[in-house]
Amino acid sequence: MRVTKKLSFWALILTTIIALYIVINASYWDEKNRVISSDVICYYDYLPAAFIFNDITLSFVNDLKNEDYLFWFGTTPEGGRYIKTSMGMAILYSPFFFLGHISAYLFDYDTGGFSKPYKMALVLSCIAYLWLGLFFLRKVLIRHFSEIITAMVIILIAFGTNYLNYSTFDAPMSHTYSFALMAMFVYLTPKWFDSPSVKNSILLGLLSGIISLVRPTNAVIALIFIFYGIGSKEELITRIKLFGTKWVQILLILLFAFIVWIPQLLYWKTVTGSYLFFSYGEERFFFNNPQIFRGLFSYQNGWLVYAPVMIFALIGIAFLYRYLKPFFIPVFIFTIINIYVILSWWCWWYPGFGNRAMIESYAVLALPLASYLKWTFQQRKYLVKSVLLFLLAFAFLQGLIHSIQYHHGAIHYNSMTKASYWEMFWKVRTTNKYWESLREPDYLMAMKGIHAYLDERNDSLKIYCSLEEIYKDGKSITDSTHTYKLTGTESLTDEFSRSGKFSVAVNKDNPFGIGLSFSVFSNEQYRISVWRKKTNINSYLVASSYVNLSFYHGENKPISEDGDWEKIQMEIDITPLIHNTHIQIFVMNDNPEKAYFDDLRVERIYE
Known about the structure:
By secondary structure, the chain is of the alpha+beta class. It has helices at residues 2-5, 7-26, 39-51, 88-106, 116-142, 147-160, 175-194, 198-214, 222-227, 233-245, 247-272, 292-297, 303-306, 309-323, 328-342, 362-377, 382-407, 418-423, 432-437, 443-446, and strands spanning 74-75, 81-82, 462-465, 477-478, 485-486, 492-493, 503-506, 512-520, 525-533, 540-544, 552-555, 558-562, 565-573, 581-588, 595-605. The chain folds into two domains: 2-397, no CATH class; 462-605, Galactose-binding domain-like (Jelly Rolls), CATH 2.60.120.260. The chain contains 20 helices and 15 strands. Strands 3, 6, 7, 9, 12, 13 and 15 form a seven-stranded antiparallel sheet that branches.
C-alpha cells in the first residue's frame, strides 16, 4: 500500500534517473558540435558576452581566434549586432553557467564559455528543469487524480512523446525549460484564485514574464489564468467583477511580468537603438494561412504522427468538463489558440523531432490526458476498458519507438515522407530506400508562405558568385541571384581580381574562404569551378559533407588559363549516404604565402 500511495513520486524519480543515466552515458559534452549548437547558440550567447567578454554589443567577435567560440548575430542597417532570440533561456541557464565557469577555473579548462564544463553544466541544467517540471506536474495532477493515473501520465508524457529526447539527447533546447515553467503556472493559477494574495500575484507575474521571455508565443499560457473556473455567462461576469475588485493584484501581475522584460528592452535599446525590436528579420507568421493539418498529421514532423499519445490528450479535453470543470474552458481555448499560433509560423514543421514546439504545452495537456485515463478506468465493460487501454499502450509504444528511431537517424529532422516513414516502420537501421525517399522542404518558399520541396524546382541549379554582390544584411557576399549567402568574407581583398573589384586571399593565418552550402540529393552530379591566380603553392577547391566525413573532394590542378588566372574544376556525384543533406564548397590554403581565388561557379549536371 505504501508503494501505491507514492507511485507517482517513484514515476518522477525513475524518469529523472533514466534521463540522468542517458546524458551521463552519452557524455556528448565531449563532442565538438554538440550541446551549444543550433538555437542554443543564440540562447546562450548572452552569458559569455555579458560575463566573460563584458560586451553585449559583440564587437569583440572579429578578434576571436578560438573557433570553438560560437556567436551568431544579426546586423542592423546601422551596423549594430544583435542576438536573434530573447534572453529568457540565458536567465534560466545562468546558475548552471556560473557553476560551469567556476569548474573551468578549478579544473584548468578554457574559461571562454564554450569548453567541457560549460557544456556539462548546460546539459545537467536540463535534467534539473525536467525534474522541476515533473515535480509541479505531479503536484497539479495528484490534487485531482489517483496515484496510478498521475504516475501513468508522467510515464506517458516522458517516454511516449518527444519530451525525453529534448531533455537528454537534444538538451538544452528550450522546450523542457518551458514545460517546467508552464507546469508551475498551471499549479499557481488555482492557488491564486483560492488566495489572490500579493505573494501569489508577484509569483504569477514573474512566472508570466519569464515564460514569455523564453519564447514570446508561449504567452498564450495566460489564457489558462484568464478563463480558469469559467463555465457559463454568469461565471464570466463574476470573473470580470473579481478582476475589478482585485485590480491591485492584477496590476502586480502585469508589473512584475514587465520587470522581467526590462533587461531585454534595455539590451535592444543598446544594440539597436530601439526598446522594441523584431529580431527575426524576414521570418514571420502567416496567420491567414496556418498549416494546421500538416502540422498535426504530416509525416514531415506532424505532431500527432510522432507523439500519438497526445491524441488521447486531445480527446480527453471533453472529459475535463466531467472531472475537472474549472480547467475545461481554459484548456480548450488554450489548445486551439496555441496550435493556431505555432502552426502559423513560416517554418511550421520546426526542424527536429515531432514538432518540438508543442512540448511545453504538455504541462497543460496532461490534465485532459489524465481525464481520459480516469474515464477509461471507469468503464464497466471489461472488453471496452481493455480495448481503450490497448490503444493507449500501442500509441505509447509507437512514440517510444519513434524516439529510438530518431536517435539512430531513422527519422529525419525535417525531410520525412510517407514513403520514408513506412520504409522505416519499427526499424532502426537505415536503408538506401529510406534516404532516397526523403524530401527536403524549400525554406525560401516557406518564408513566403508556400509549402514546397527543393526537388520540385524545375530549373537546374546554377550558382555563380563573382564576390561582388552584397547580401541583404549588407555585410556578406551572395551569389548573382542573391539566394545563397557565403561565409568566409573576412578574406575578401581588392589586391587582385579576375572580374570586378574583389577576390579572396587565403593563407595559413586565414586558411578558408568562399564558404557556400546548399542541399543535394542522391544521384545528382555537380560541376564546380573557381579561378585561382597563378601560383606554385598547393591551394585547393574543396567539396565536403559534415554528415559523412568520407565525402571529401579536393582539387588543385588547373584545367585552363586566362592571363594570370587559372581555372580549377571538379565533378562530384552525390551518393545516398549524403542524400538530402548539405554539402560545403570552399577554397583552402594552409601555406604562409597567399593564394587568390575569384568567380566561383556551381552547376547541377545530368548524364
